[in-house]
């Protein structure tokens, strides 16, 4: 069985038809009333998370689990995250643990072991510490999405700066990602080392794609944060692959549908996103 | 009561006499046999951690808790970390949660809330995402040690690169730290925003100190990793303050002392480190 993370994701995308990833960022005061009533904090988060997963699994090949939202509740939240990830896997979803860890050596190995034990396929990681901050995740059989060009406005303060050799800091990080990724190709042609590249930063994206031809881009910022169809089009590979568009609020907190449960509204939002993104990558 | 994190740390250093921090990085197969016998994985880790804290508290004002070592055991490990940090606080120690988180906005706020709920005073964080990756920790009343110049050899691949304006990437990060820190001064004159600067990178340290005069440097790499007394001397402020030298293996896994328990050996190692560092910063 091929367990290369990029191949697993590629296969899952083929199966559902659209490279979308639902960002599971559950925040208590934004949950539907039906989830909160008669349930205490972390129980409500978990009930909601399971419901979202059930609703989106037919349309989304992947889920991005925001570790912070669960860690917020300490060890009880961490236990809830473990069960949530297990549920996502039972639905056949590829799991990206959005933990943005960035340590080295044995500490990074511990984070990798923790993520692998939970059942994650990919982890988001920081590359600021150099290659030894990323390699331990790969050695554990996980894929990594390295933070290259993040969607928040003030990331420019670091990532847009020019090096003396003409590259931006983000492009330097992209070269590091491509180098680390070259040793980890899947049979799909995509590497186990991917990159986080925000849809809102797609003007930098063409150069980043040229530097990372075999990387999957995990792309936040579409929709609610302002990223548009043309931004995604810029970031995909010529063959339409190599992107995983992640959306959170627009899917998990949709407009209610009159007479329908919140889960139906979530499913509809995921279906709509999947159709939009499929059109973009196939055009 | 003054609860500014830099002031708390400064006071704790005055009380114990030396700016050292014990790195609590417990790894199962390195624990003394006395800790492992008759205890399962995470129970052994916790038993050891409590013993280390009890042993070092008279000599070390601070402990750096490596989150990865606990997360390695999932939610049970996380619960053990919560109890370990509570124990460190009960001993009057300042707690640095070495979590190296690096997210933004509400996710960063969640990490901050999690750390604060556990009782941490400081958190290690990545600045690659820009100011919005650091500010939420400060808003939660925590101090932050931002990764600026880490002690691992291959950090040069990122942090030593030159920008077009002549600064290194690490110096750029230092300027960001100083800027963020300027708004968070304690009555000690030290800022709530500190920096991780490895002892093994002290040749870069003079320039970093010039850019960050009011920052506490959390300094790994002394001893086992090769950092020497002159490295620490280079990184301190002219008044001898502004450094927190962290050591893990040399303190928590010391040479056994014939006829004494492992806890006595740990206490002796902490006492020795404290004396060494006190001499360096006071010279």
Describe this structure as you would to a colleague.
2 copies of one chain form a homodimer. By secondary structure, chain A is an alpha/beta fold. Chain A has a single domain, classed as Alpha-Beta Barrel (TIM Barrel). In chain A, 46% of the residues lie in helices and 15% in strands. Chain A has 13 helices and 8 strands. Chain A has helices at residues 5-16, 33-36, 41-56, 67-71, 74-90, 105-118, 135-139, 156-159, 169-182, 205-211, 229-235, 249-252, 262-282, and strands at 20-24, 62-66, 94-101, 122-125, 143-149, 193-197, 217-219, 243-247. Chain A has an 8-stranded parallel beta barrel with strand order 1-2-3-4-5-6-7-8, surrounded by 6 helices. In chain A, strand 4, helix 7 and strand 5 form a beta-alpha-beta unit. In chain A, helix 3 runs parallel beside helix 5 (74-90). Chain A starts with a helix and ends with a helix. The mean pLDDT of chain A is 96. Chains A and B meet through helix 4, helix 5, strand 3, helix 6 and helix 8 of A and helix 4, helix 5, strand 3, helix 6 and helix 8 of B.
